[in-house]
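Entry:
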Amino acid sequence: MAKMTTFLGAVALSALMAAPLRAETTAETVVATVNGTEITLGQMIATRASLPPQYQQLPDDVLFNGILDQLVQQTALAQDTEGKLTKRQEIQLANDQRSAISAFALEAIVKTAVTDAALQAAYDEKFKDFKPGTEYHAAHILVDSEEKANEIKKQIEGGVLFADAAKTHGTDGTAASGGDLGWFGPGMMVKPFEDAVTAMKAGEMKGPVKTDFGFHLIQLIETREAGKPALDDVRDELAAELEQKAVAAQVEALTKAAKVEKPGAALDPALLKDETLLDK
């Protein structure tokens, strides 16, 4: 919040400044110095890229001057802390730097791991033994007692539409849509419910069926054969799996190759809670 407040304040102070002249520039182009410390155009570009989208939409001149002033102010503040940081702050700074650098390393691993070829190979492997199954489209009416479920069942058998009964008596979030549960496959419903549905024919009603949620009246609307999903349908899932495997493999390889010593492994684990050590 303090950082964003500083930025917004800088924008307000700089809004009326004239637009800078264009020139041949690179990321190393110096845009300001603070007591000899250089601030570059690349640093400004990276700062803009890290801003929330609504701030990136500000006019270019406003954003340029605001970011420039922000970096000047931050540099001056950073210079003022030289030799003044507490041990706690120095430790936190080291942790933040280590975390940021390791995140950059992970980005590089992920970029090389997720390719079109790798995705296709992962897709082929995942679904090489795929066998079509059955998906079910059903509706239900959930109530808290078997007696109530039987009363509603009699109303439906007497001519009341299942969907209307669900809207009137259902106690869960599907009641407003007539109890419609949409399409689902094996393993997506609790076992008593799934067992009942898989034994039904389209258009049939069954119940009461007891589960941990209460008592259900179930109507099977229709079934269909579940085909193999398209690559695009599972692309994100496969990409996440590839990323996870690549990161795990690289981290394992690097730690195995490194000379790792743990002289503090025998310390009392409860020391983690002793924050007073950070101030000594």
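The longest strand covers residues 214-226.
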